[in-house]
Amino acid sequence: MTFKNMNTPLLTFSAFILLAFSISCNNADTTPDISDITDVENTEAKLLMPAIAVKPPLPDIEVPFITYIVPVKEGMTFETPTGTTVKIPADAFVDKDGKPVEGKVDIKFREFHDASDIIVSGIPMHDPETGEYMETGGMFEIAGEQNGQEIFVKADKDIKINLASYNKGDDFNFFELDKKKCHWDDEGRMEKEKPNAKRAKALAELEKSMPLKPVKPAKKSLKDDRQYFELDVNYSKFPTLAAFSDVIWQYSGQGVDIEKEKWVFESNWDNISIHESETGYFELKLSNDKKTISTFVQPVLAGKDYEKSLAEFTEKSMKEYEKIKEEVRLKRERLNYQAEMQRALSISGFGTFNCDRWKSLPNINCNAEFTFDELAGVSDDILKEIKFYLVMKNRKGVIPYTTRGFYKFFIPKDGDNALLAVIPGGKVALFTNEDFKNLDFDKIKKTNSAVIDMRTTDNRVESREDLSMILDFAMAN
């Protein structure tokens, strides 16, 4: 590179779920009726141990699968929006008859990380034998097909996954859901989560790639006695400098005054670099095997029609700057959506899998009476169909209830909490975080009862995003 003198003058929240009252595998209601119970204390264990089933509470709403087209012969590694990576080995699949699959296959993948994901999934996350619930460190479902026909993973092949995790801890186990038996099979203890190194590196590089606002060039003047010079630099490497092809340079007045250092122009420099700086000028660095010097320079527009040249520069530079700024914003948004941590695991087949640890719910319950406003339009028949979800932000929990569970309703005394009631037809009623904080807990403890006044919102749950937005609102009010 040469340096030539010119002598002219831009709620996660991890969730778990306890199905205190649910449906059995054959969809028969096995929850005991309150009229059949004479001794609540003796039946407590049974009440916390219902049968389980995969039964989405909102049939028209689900966590969508993302489909990845995978070439069987080569295999493939793909990354999901959360930062999960899935490595599919080569020649990994067979059909229902055990024959090798060729060509391309569709691998479907979806994840469940927050309260809305787990609620709409309907996936059970409790043990009916112990009454414990699962606190998840990440859950996913994976399936495969070719031309609409189910495929299977070869016996000698494993799919390796680095699962996005928003919950830290070294006491998580790995589970596989046996849908036929409605049971989570414990596959053993998992390794501790590790940082998502790829995400961290990408964010660091992204910050470096963000250009500063373009520097407005000066006008070349015959009255200016400062020296001008050219830079033999590959401007294509600097998008915001792309408009500088007809620009010459001069010392800015900051840093080392190279105009007084003639040796600078007489030396051969092995490396010349220039980049935007926070000073509002460009930092110029020159180096060879003997010396290194840096200073600040500014671009100068040459030519008779300065106003025309300036307008052209402004249009090119600012347009490119805004373009890069928007690209960086979108990349940062995508990376910030990804989990900071990952959990490594391998699976030998398709299905639903979970990284969890067992927890027990504090034994603080009361008899709850729920009331609704006229907007809800709740009759006795409709009340039986309403699905309630107690969302506990600090406990990282979601507990579904049916009307039969009201006499053992858990009311959290601390933290941020909200209760959501999904009414048939898509209506939603709320008991907000502020409502919980206004409860008279001394009275509740004394009487072992509470009145919960549900208020109907104007919003209906028509999508998973709607549910998430409503939950955020309930938690913030």
What does this structure look like?
The chain is α+β, with helices and mostly antiparallel strands and 477 residues long. It has 3 domains: 17-194 and 340-359, Chondroitinase Ac, Chain A, domain 3; 212-334, no CATH class; 365-476, no CATH class. 20% of the residues lie in helices and 35% in strands. The protein has 9 helices and 29 strands. It has a 15-stranded mixed beta sheet that branches. The longest helix is centred in the C-terminal third of the chain and has 32 residues, at 306-337. Mean pLDDT is 80; it is low at 1-51.
Strand content: 35-45%
Low-confidence stretches: 1-51
CATH topology of the largest domain: Chondroitinase Ac, Chain A, domain 3
Known CATH architecture of the largest domain: Sandwich
Total beta strands: 29
Shape verdict: elongated
| CATH class category label of the largest domain | Mainly Beta
Please tell me the overall pLDDT.
Answer: 80
Class by SSE composition:
alpha+beta
- Count of discrete domains: 3
> What value does the Rg take, in angstroms?
32 Å
For the largest beta-sheet, the strand count, sense and barrel status come to: 15 strands, mixed
Kindly list the characteristics that best describe this protein.
single chain, 477 residues, alpha+beta, Chondroitinase Ac, Chain A, domain 3, 3 domains, 15-stranded mixed β-sheet, seven-stranded mixed β-sheet, elongated, disordered N terminus
